[in-house]
UniProtKB/TrEMBL annotation:
<dbReference type="GO" id="GO:0016791">
    <property type="term" value="F:phosphatase activity"/>
</dbReference>
<dbReference type="InterPro" id="IPR000150">
    <property type="entry name" value="Cof"/>
</dbReference>
<dbReference type="GO" id="GO:0000287">
    <property type="term" value="F:magnesium ion binding"/>
</dbReference>
<dbReference type="InterPro" id="IPR036412">
    <property type="entry name" value="HAD-like_sf"/>
</dbReference>
<dbReference type="InterPro" id="IPR006379">
    <property type="entry name" value="HAD-SF_hydro_IIB"/>
</dbReference>
<dbReference type="GO" id="GO:0005829">
    <property type="term" value="C:cytosol"/>
</dbReference>
<dbReference type="InterPro" id="IPR023214">
    <property type="entry name" value="HAD_sf"/>
</dbReference>
<dbReference type="Pfam" id="PF08282">
    <property type="entry name" value="Hydrolase_3"/>
</dbReference>
<protein>
    <submittedName>
        <fullName>HAD family phosphatase</fullName>
    </submittedName>
</protein>
Length: 278
């Protein structure tokens, strides 16, 4: 692994600990890697602004892939983005409203470049939404917000949709978003979240675009992940690590196993492989 030039790291269940916090020793590890000229890339389904806040201590020179690959940013400048089409988004809004009317405890997040947008405004949902989407705006009607975006009458533009279910997203998302899985990119990001994106959008496509831009090969790439939305990203790295706590499907496609996120496994591996002081 002497020629690693790119390290892509998922957050929830991977770099973040069991309390969804960044371990304090993250900072000296990333700082030393960046000082060696290695490109370190947090890759998450979370919003860019959330990731920017999380990594503000090492923001200079840091590349971020956000919204499950819908957008990549470096030093606050957009490298590339690929947004979901509006007719599909409008259809999903109707589907989620129907689920809510049937008593399903769920909520939809319309993810734009500038902010996320939600109709549901209760404290329980907003607390969760704003943990993953620091810039979240409550609106009266997501249909109207999307229509304004499509017509160029809104300052924002659509990236993806995210849905949260307080119990289990798998059966809920299969109805609301899964109906579009044949024509779009539908990913389950954990027990509670799923995303719908354009068919050419996932972490793997984003990493491939970044590799091409930087002239870096999969042989020079290391990746860490734990769940299905990391499959594409791991496929773009010859040095792929499944977390010990990862889904079995992630173990099946990964070359190595890292200790669990609760054990700060990503940092353990990075310190050992790169002989870091931290």
């Amino acid at each position: 692994m002497s020629d690693i030039q790119l390290i892509t790291i998922d957050l929830d269940g991977t770099l973040l600990d069991e309390n969804r916090k960044l371990p304090e020793e993250t900072w000296p590890v990333i700082e030393q890697l960046l000082a060696r000229g290695i490109t370190v890339v947090p890759c998450s389904g979370r919003q860019y602004w959330t990731l920017s806040d999380l990594f503000d201590r090492v923001s200079d020179g840091l590349t971020i892939i956000a919204e499950n690959g819908s957008i990549a940013m470096r030093d606050g400048e957009e490298l590339f983005s690929n947004g979901l089409d509006y007719p599909t988004a409008q259809a999903v809004v109707l589907n989620v409203r129907s689920q809510q009317e049937a008593g399903v405890n769920t909520g939809l997040v319309v993810c734009g470049k500038r902010s996320a947008y939600v109709e549901r405004d209760d404290d329980a949902f907003l607390t969760i939404a704003r943990e993953f989407y620091h810039r979240t705006t409550v609106v009266d009607d997501l249909h109207e917000t999307l229509a304004q975006m499509e017509q160029g009458e809104h300052e924002d533009s659509l990236l993806k949709l995210a849905q949260f279910d307080f119990t289990n997203i798998t059966p809920t998302g299969a109805v609301s978003m899964g109906a579009f899985a044949a024509t779009h990119q539908y990913v389950v990001s954990g027990q509670h979240w799923c995303d719908l994106m354009n068919p050419t959008v996932d972490k793997g496509h984003a990493v491939a675009a970044l590799q091409e831009r930087l002239g870096i090969t999969p042989a020079q790439t290391m990746a860490f992940g734990d769940f299905h939305n990391d499959l594409g990203m791991l496929a773009r790295a010859e040095h792929s690590f499944a977390m010990a706590n990862a889904h079995p499907d992630i173990h099946a496609v990964s070359r190595y196993i890292a200790p669990s996120n609760a054990e700060h496994g990503v940092l353990q591996v990075l310190r050992a492989v790169f002989d870091l002081d931290a």
